[in-house]
Amino acid sequence: MKAIIYLIMLLMVANIALAQEIKVVKESVPEIGLNEVIEIKIHISNSYSMEKEFTIEEILPQDVMVIAPEEFFIKKNDALELKYYEWTTKISPNSIKTIMYQIRPLSLGEYSLGSTEVIDKSDLRSYSSNILTFNVKCIPNNKCEVNENINTCPEDCQSGAKDGVCDYKADGICDKDCDYEPDCKKSNFNINYITIPLGVIILIIILFIILSKIFKKKQENYKKEEIKTDNSNKSDAQERDPLKGL
Length: 246
Known about the structure:
The chain is α+β, with helices and mostly antiparallel strands. It contains two helices and twelve strands; from the N terminus they run H-E-E-E-E-E-E-E-E-E-E-E-E-H. Among the domains are: 18-137, Immunoglobulin-like; 146-186, no CATH class. The strands form three sheets. The protein has a five-stranded antiparallel sheet, with no helix packed on it. A four-stranded antiparallel sheet has the order 1-3-8-5, with no helix packed on it.
């Protein structure tokens, strides 16, 4: 009988111990538009029957603007500078505390927030939250702009658009961002087949014009010499004429 009582007491103690735990859950909306502000919520639940004090560290993703709280810290990880928040807070027994902050993502695409690290100052035990992801979508304006592509802004960048992303699929649209794409039929035609013969013809025409001018000038000089020679011969003949002066 005593053994059964001890076993029941042991199970009760075990249930109480299991019930006493710290949980950290992070959440946000799954999607926002570019230049919009997203709010991140960190829920910390203290199921112990005593007040707990915690230190919370939240590393921020790259390429974001910090909105609120405005004050943050920076630490180096190798050559990379990391922005992060750090809080110290007390949580009452059997209660949940929510910490919130706001950031503005500066790029399109998926963002990932690593685990929030929570340390119990009473025993230095560490707790981690879930990893949070959200997507930043474009604001459609019928223009496939520099920072947009078919993945980040399918409303503006259609398949085959020159957006730096290879949309490799047989859909009847040639995507010039691909090195090889089934819809891009490579022509056997070589532009040199036109440019080289055309260049030769132009060169022949230029040479013909230059030679024609040289030949024409030589002819003109030859005729001038002939006229000059004829005049000189006539002058000599007149001087030798015995009847000249009668």
